[in-house]
Amino acid sequence: MKRAAPPTPPLFVERKRALSEEERALWDSVAKSIKPLRKKTRAAKTEAIAVDDTAPVTSMKFEPVPSKAAPPAITKPVSKPSAPPLAPIGRRERAQLSKGRKEIDGRLDLHGMTQARAHRALLAFLHRASADGMTFVLVITGKGASGQGHERGVLRRQVPEWLALPEFRGLVVGFEEAHIGHGGAGALYVRVRRAR
Description:
Elements: H1 21-33, H2 91-98, E1 106-109, H3 115-131, E2 136-140, H4 154-163, H5 166-169, E3 172-177, E4 187-192
Parallel strand pairs: 1-2
Antiparallel strand pairs: 2-4, 3-4
């Protein structure tokens, strides 16, 4: 029978070392600045101190050890809550808007504006509409003439994309193409999110 080879000893042995006073102070400051993940509080661990009964009791003076100033705690920037998702306008509400049973609280006509000017105008209009407590507004983009060689109907394509951006989603609940009586493909019904 062949004997098994004895296990080889590890090449190095990891030794634990005690923290220095400076490291202990730094750790304590970091530990105090964190918040627990759980809501339940745990009992703090108490450190056991060994007492030598045979040693004479003497009064001791403790002098504070000058330490380097602890670096400022690194805090994460507070992230803004994500923008709420868009919701389509309900079929019943859309029918009421198209038949005039539900009021359109405001209108914005973007005809003839550049993209930059239209973007600013739309954002300002929706801020006002939200602050004024409006529910439904009509945004007229125009259909754009069909032309050869150059692009038409830029705002008709851009405005729905803008309304889906996070900067607008805080102001807009949802949007849909308007009824033919309100402009059809060249206009949008926009449901405004009310200011809190």
